[in-house]
Specification:
Blueprint (H helix, E strand, L loop, with lengths): L1 E2 L7 E5 L5 E4 L1 H9 L6 H5 L11 H15 L4 E6 L5 E13 L2 E13 L12 E9 L5 E3 L2 E3 L1 H7 L8 E7 L2 H10 L5
């Protein structure tokens, strides 16, 4: 990926002591709209538990540990991918406690590269009933041979053989899980 000449402003959100999303900055909706997301997405996330957006139990466990560490005074910083149909993005997330049980999550774009569009990342693409698991951190796709880059999955898994692509479900690959657990020695 190539470094950006001008990075967009960070996307920030906060949860309260109960784990509910209580704040998102203006960049939240701008980022969503620039990436073919739904308009006014923030209105639908405010007041909802952060965990309600995490379908994978391992991802929920990691976020619980990160939130506990942040509430305990530790600042967590890590890199993750957030790709769009024609874009590969590397972001850096910083998680920190604000007091009174509130925790702030800030994501900053570090690198951006354009690529040929991949329908698998297009929310408007026609979908089959099958699901493919994608790592929430590195965006690799689970394949019978192991976790592979999305571009390789198009060929290896034949994602464009028919008129529809599989649905996507998020989890975490073993490599990213191990890296995240190493960041959290004091989180227990």
């Amino acid at each position: 990926m190539n470094p950006m000449s001008v990075a967009p402003p960070p996307v920030t959100y906060r949860i309260d002591a109960e784990g509910k999303i209580v704040y998102v900055n203006a960049q939240w909706d701008i980022f969503a709209q620039q990436n073919d997301g739904e308009a006014a997405l923030s209105a639908r996330v405010l007041g909802r538990p952060l965990a309600s957006f995490q379908s994978d139990s391992t991802v929920r466990m990691l976020y619980r540990k990160m939130v506990a560490a942040a509430r305990g005074g530790q600042t967590i910083t890590f890199l993750y991918r957030c790709d769009g149909p024609a874009t590969r993005r590397l972001l850096e997330m910083t998680i920190r406690g604000l007091g009174r049980g509130e925790v702030e999550f800030t994501s900053t774009v570090k690198e951006l590269a354009h690529r040929e569009p991949i329908a698998f990342f297009d929310r408007h693409a026609l979908r089959t009933p099958e699901y493919l698991r994608i790592c929430s951190w590195c965006q690799r796709v689970a394949a019978p041979s192991g976790w592979i880059e999305a571009e390789a999955a198009v060929t290896t898994l034949g994602l464009f053989v028919g008129p529809a692509v599989p649905q996507m479900t998020h989890g975490i690959c073993e490599r990213c899980q191990d890296e995240m657990l190493r960041l959290l020695p004091s989180a227990g």
